[in-house]
Design goal:
24% strand, 2 domains, alpha/beta, eight-stranded mixed sheet, 12 helices, TIM Barrel, 20 strands, five-stranded parallel sheet, Urease, subunit C, domain 1
Length: 373
Amino acid sequence: MSALILKSAQIVDPANNRNTVGDIYIENGLITSTPPSGAEVWDLAGHCLAPGFIDLRCTVRSREDLNLALEQGYTTLFCPQKPPEEVLFSGAPKCIPLGPLTQGRGGKELAGIGLGAGAHILFDGNQPIGNAGLMRRAMQYAAELNAVVMVHAEDKTLSGKGVLGEGAVALAWGIPCVPASAEATVVARDLLLLEEAGGHLHFAHLSCKRSVQLVEEAKRRGLSVTADVSPLHLNAWDAKAAPYSPLARVWPPLRTEEDSCALREGLKCGSIDALASDHCRRTKDEVEEPFELCMPGGESLNAVWPTLWAMDMPLLDKIARVTSGPARALRLAWGGHLGEGALADAVIIDLKTGHILKTLVDGRICFSRGATL
C-alpha cells in the first residue's frame, strides 16, 4: 500500500509534544505534510495513533519472536546479537544489531565502530567492563565519534555467583545473592567517567533504587545520560518469585519490593527514559537446569505495553517510554516520531482497552487484530 490517509485519530506523538485529534498522511513509506492523491482513507475516531514502538534490547531467535513483536506494536528491535537470517521475513520489524564496545565483547580491548544502522550504539551485552581505564578510553573514543555507549552495570567481584538480589528471600532460599552495590558502584563509577570523558551514556536494565537515584542526580548535574528498565523488574521482586522458579531467574537479578517501587517511580517521572523488553526466549532445556545454573531470561515482549497501559501516568508519557524515550537514548533521527519525513512506522491502539489493533512498518500493515477501521 503506497498511500494512506489516517483521519480523526488521537495522535499521540511525544517527540513533538503532540496529543491532539488530527490526520496523518502516508506516502511511499514516509509521513508527508499533504494528503496524497488516490490514497485509501481510514477513519480512526476513538483510536490512538502513535509512533511504532522501539525496543532497546530484544534477542530474536525465531519468527515467533518477530510475530510477537508486531502484535505488541514494535516496529524496531535493537538486538544484542544479530538475528539468524532464516528467521527474518518481509514485513517484520526492523532488526538492528548493536555494535560491540570491546573486541568479541570480551571486555579486554576496544572494538572498532563498523557500518550499519546500529553501529554507533556500542554494547557488550551482559558482559561488564571491569577495567575502569578501559571504560574511560571507550567513552572518550565514543564521544569523538558521536557514538552511544550502552552499559550493563555490574561488578563481578561483588555479584560473584549470585542469582538473586541480596535480602531475606535469598537467605531463606539458601542461594547465592547479589548486593545492590554490585550495580550501583559501577553506575557511580561510569557517571564520574562520563563527567570527565564527555559523550553520551545509556544504562541498560537498572534494577535497584540507588542506581535510579544516581542517574537522577547526574541528570540534574547536566550529564548526557539515559537509562531503561525492563518489565521483568517492574512486575516482580524477590518476594513474589516462587522458590526456584525459572521465571525468577533473570539478569540483573530480582531485588526487593522497595527497589521495584523505585524503578516504577523513576519510569513515571522520567528519570528512567524507556521500558525495554530484554526479551530472551529460552528453550525447555535451558530452563530445566538447577536454578543457579538456569540460563537467565524471559519472554517479556508481551509485558511492556500492558505494563505501561496499566500504570498511573499520562498517555503521552506512557507512549514516550517506548517511542521518543528509546529514540533519544540511542540518538535516533529517523524513528520514534510522526513528524514530516519520518518513517511511517506507527501503531493504532484502542483507547478504551489499550489493545494494539494494527502495526504499520514503512507504511505497510504488518499486524492486524482484525478490527474494522
